[in-house]
Amino acid sequence: MSAPVKAGVRLQMLRAGSSAETLFLVPGLEGDPAELADLAAAMTGPQAVYVVAPTAESEPRLETMAAGMVAALRGVQPAGPYRLGGYSFGGLAAFEMAQQLRAAGETVESLFLIDALFDERYWPRRTWLRALVRRTWWQLLRIVRLPPREAVGELRRRGVRLLQRLRRRNADTPDPLRVSDEPDAPDVRVNALTAIGGYRPQHYDGDVTLIASAEDHHFGCDTARLWDGYARRIDLQRIAGDHLTVMQRPAAAAVIGHLIDHRLAARRADWPGLRPVDGFARPMIVTTMRWFSAARLAHALAEAGFEVSACRPGDHPLEVVTTLSADHRLRRGRRLASLEAAIRATRPDILLPDDERAWALLRRLHARTTDPATRTVIEHSLGHGDDWAHISSRTAVAQEARKAGVAVPDTEVITGPAALAGWTYPLMLKTDGSWGGRGVAMVSDESRLAPTWATISRPPSYPRAVKRLVVNRETDGLVARLRGRRPVVNAQQHLEGRDAVVTVACLAGKVRDLICLEVVRASAERGPAEVVRVIDHPKMAAAASQVVERFGLTGFCGMDFLLTPDGDAYLVELNSRVTPTCHLLVEGAHEEGQVLTLFPADCAEVEMLDVPLRSLALAELGERLVARRSRPLTRMGRRLTQRLTSSDPVGGRPRTR
Fold first, then answer.
1. CATH architecture classification, 390-644
2. From CA 321, how far away is CA 140, in angstroms rounded?
3. Is there a common fold for 9-119+199-266 and 283-381?
4. CATH no., domain 283-381
5. d(Cα 544, Cα 279) in Å, to the nearest integer?
6. pTM for the full model?
7. 9-119+199-266 CATH, one of 3.40.1650.10, 3.40.50.620, 3.40.50.1820, 3.30.1360.40
8. Where is this region: Disordered (predicted)?
9. Beta strand pairing call for 489-493 and 427-431
10. Residues 539-549: what's their mean pLDDT?
């Protein structure tokens, strides 16, 4: 439905919903409500959505336009809190509307600027000069491809415009350049261009969500740089595409709709997701592996208001997460030095190891650093310092968990097959420091014990070590092979039951939130869980809380359980680090019984693919990873690797990785 045009303002409902959470959006230069239709259609929240826009009859002055639109939206919602947003010119108009509403004593709860720009005369000088050079270069590249006569004319025209831009940098009059360049433009567009030319934004004493395009094909500048310092707090979110395609492509507009949905939901008092708190507000993700889940978690944390940084190897999925406050490289030849430099430069309040090697690396740095602040943040992040040796040992974790009242299968460190005399079969052999099912083997009967022990207790084979070096760029396996370093092997009693995991967010030994998941399917034999079901299991949750308290854990961790037919939960493994399901805790509660296929998944049939809808870049990267794994050459490489490394142990249960 639409309301009559009044006082030069059009007001139109795009989406019916709750009047208590109405969202008002302003379109771009053309003032066309249809421009925002895909964005509104993608929203799933309870809010009603209105488009408010100036018409050709409005005065071409932004303050006047904004005042008219404020009067129009007050006809729908007489009092705040208000939720405003706008695209391009509409973002600038929404910004001024928010200023006027706050000046009138109203509350503006949310303000979304979607690739909004203001007049280039008010850009920072360095940004303006860089943009001028870039646009001039783009024009020259275009002109040299034209026929000679046409190129000369275009060069003369562009030269005149360049001189105009240089002269008007410090001019006080409205911008004649934009309007004169579009003699046949509709009156709405002419008015908008004139209004932009005469408007200089002032500091906004509130919070702004700036949704900026990741590419620049038009203005020569990064939108995010323009708004730096113009608001009390700017929550920057990148969207794949350029200034035009972020709204013209339905997929990109849908991402913006999901993002706005999420921001509005996060402001509600009953929001179930994690929020930043003292000691857990500025996390740094430390990773030595190139796992997609680290990027997924970083994006979720940044969305939730955390100030997220990373220290990671090159060519990592974290590269596409543009909301990182700092992105540091973990150097292969100098890991400790590069990690310490990253921590000193960023000063996070918590470190989140993404894998076992990252956890061990932080322990080594703690022993070697001379910086008290670095030692303090490592101690805060890894649990009780006296328990670090326990946390890295499967047997010690089992023994300490049993003392805390947690049910665990019998688990012992063994030095040879003779130590297993009296054990019943089947049983599991597991090495310390392994992950994702690596270093796990099932021994079905006593006749298989000796050969399985011989395989699992030796360093990685040369073929596997070389494969990990060339394909995974991991040097640890080859170093262990060359030095003859043997792993610590644990024996664990095998129990029949269903695999399950608990994902926990905790701080100083206290659980902030947790989610219980049953493993429906693993990605491969011994591999991490791929499909999970949300379950309510009080015994498993209580056991996880006891383990967190016993070791004083902080950050994220995952625990593998075995659920027996009689309903008991046995702890079989502790991963005191980030696991692939941690983002579920950040994003909010999931209904009991919900089945999730963790993205990216290489499977044809899925219950609910857990796609990162609010990050088109992450979604596209995940799709590329799946496509790469399904290529014939890649499949052939996996089969060849399996043959070359067939002497390594096989078998075991799905793991959370």
1. 2-Layer Sandwich (3.30)
2. 33
3. yes
4. 3.40.50.20
5. 21
6. 0.79
7. 3.40.50.1820
8. 637-657
9. antiparallel
10. 96
User: What is the residue type of 350?
Assistant: I
Fill in the DSSP letter of residue 364.
H
Q: Phi and psi of 601, rounded to 5°?
A: -120, 140
* Best-predicted range by mean pLDDT (55-64, 88-97, 647-656): 88-97
**CA nearest neighbour of 7 among 79, 81, 96, 70:** 70
What average pLDDT does this structure show over 382-400?
A: 93
* Strand residues in 27-172 grouped as ranges (E): 47-54, 82-87, 108-114
Angle between helices 292-303 and 616-629 (to 10 degrees): 170
pLDDT tens digits for 304-349? Answer: 889 999 999 999 999 999 889 999 999 988 999 999 999 999 999 9
Q: Is the pLDDT of residue 649 over 60?
A: no
Please report the beta strands in 124-247, taking only residues with DSSP state E, as ranges in sequence order: 204-213, 231-239
CA nearest neighbour of 73 among 100, 91, 42: 100
Backbone angles phi, psi at 47, to 5 degrees: -70, 140
Give dist(CA 149, CA 155) in Å, integer.
10
| Nearest-angstrom CA–CA distance, 414 and 441 | 14
Give the tokens for residue 473.
């760029």
pLDDT digits (tens, 9 = 90+) for 109-156: 999 999 998 888 888 878 877 877 877 777 788 888 888 888 888 778
Q: Which tens digits make up the pLDDT trace of 614-642?
A: 887 888 888 888 887 766 655 544 444 44
- Measured CA to CA, the distance from residue 374 to residue 102 in angstroms comes to 42
Query: Which residue shows structure tokens 């920072």?
Result: 124
Classified as helix, coil or strand, 549 is helix
β-sheet with 309-312: strand ranges across: 326-329, 309-312, 283-286, 350-353
Q: Determine the number of helices (DSSP H) and then strands (DSSP E) in the chain.
A: 23, 22
Residue 650 has pLDDT above 50, yes or no: no
